[in-house]
Design goal:
CATH class: Alpha Beta
Helix content: 25-40%
CATH architecture: 4-Layer Sandwich
Shape: globular
Largest sheet: 7 strands, mixed
Number of helices: 6
Radius of gyration: 17 Å
Strand content: 25-35%
Number of domains: 1
Structural class: alpha/beta
Number of strands: 15
């Protein structure tokens, strides 16, 4: 199955980000991708966290969700929409939102929703982040089935950015049969330089799964700098494709036969005690 990790450098203008995402998704579809994954916060990286509240949508309706659905239908593509802010209250006036990753099938229907469980906090005296100021944590790991043109139905485990540091989430996906792990992200330059590739390759190896990680990658208008380095990794930990910085489409082919071969040769998943 041909897949694409979409790398972006999102701004504080939603419409500009949707235009950029649309062009990159079209490139992915033209290259033969069946699945394209957008990065975390693909729709907005603003001047302050509170801007997420202003663009929140109710699950099932809203311009960002409509965009994802239309692109999936128009391009005949599975799309995982990085993340977007979904309301935590019926009135849509909460002071917190979910940071949600939505998967749309080629007919434009939402096939899965995952609310980011682990909320990033970091303070090294120079940089300071605390997602819990405006985000509410999710609680439920989510997988969905993706039937590929190659005849294999992939079980896809959803995660987002800071989740990458919590191996137990990916063990849950693995126990549910996941063979592809998605990690849309906006890693900071500081933490990404230190840990991004290391953690992604570890998650692939320990779960004998493919990993596809779509990242924000570059200098944003608000002064934030993200690490980028969108990657596709095979179950043996080898990097199949990558891009360091700036917007682009990272293409890779996932081979179900290779996956089965790795799991047969090294049946580590059968040897788990927990």
């Amino acid at each position: 199955m041909q897949v694409a990790a979409i790398q972006m450098v999102s701004t504080g203008v939603v419409q500009d980000n949707l235009v950029q995402a649309g062009k990159l998704l079209e490139q992915a579809a033209q290259a033969g991708a069946e699945l394209a994954v957008l990065p975390e916060y693909f729709c907005l990286i603003g001047q302050h966290d509170g801007e997420k509240l202003a663009i929140q949508e109710h699950f099932g309706s809203g311009p960002i969700q409509d965009f994802l659905s239309e692109q999936a239908r128009r391009l005949g593509l599975w799309i995982v929409g990085g993340t977007l802010p979904l309301s935590t209250s019926a009135a849509g006036d909460s002071d917190k939102v979910f940071n949600s990753s939505l998967a749309f099938d080629p007919q434009g229907a939402c096939a899965a929703r995952y609310d980011k469980i682990h909320l990033f906090r970091f303070d090294n005296g120079t940089e300071s982040y605390d997602e819990s100021r405006v985000l509410q944590a999710g609680h439920q790991p989510v997988q969905f089935a993706l039937p590929s043109r190659d005849g294999h139905t992939w079980t896809v485990g959803l995660s987002v950015c800071y989740d990458l540091r919590f191996a137990e989430l990916y063990r849950t996906h693995s126990a549910a049969g996941a063979d592809l792990l998605l990690v849309p992200s906006a890693f900071t330059y500081t933490t990404g330089q230190a840990h991004w590739e290391l953690l992604l390759r570890t998650r692939a190896v320990e779960n004998l799964s493919f990993v596809l990680a779509a990242a924000q990658g570059g200098a944003h208008p608000n002064g934030r700098r993200t690490w980028g380095q969108s990657l596709a990794i095979d179950p043996w930990g080898a990097i199949l494709a990558q891009q360091a910085q700036e917007p682009g489409v990272v293409l890779a082919t996932l081979d179900a036969a290779q996956l089965a071969r790795c799991r047969m040769q090294l049946p580590a998943l059968q040897h788990r005690l927990l």
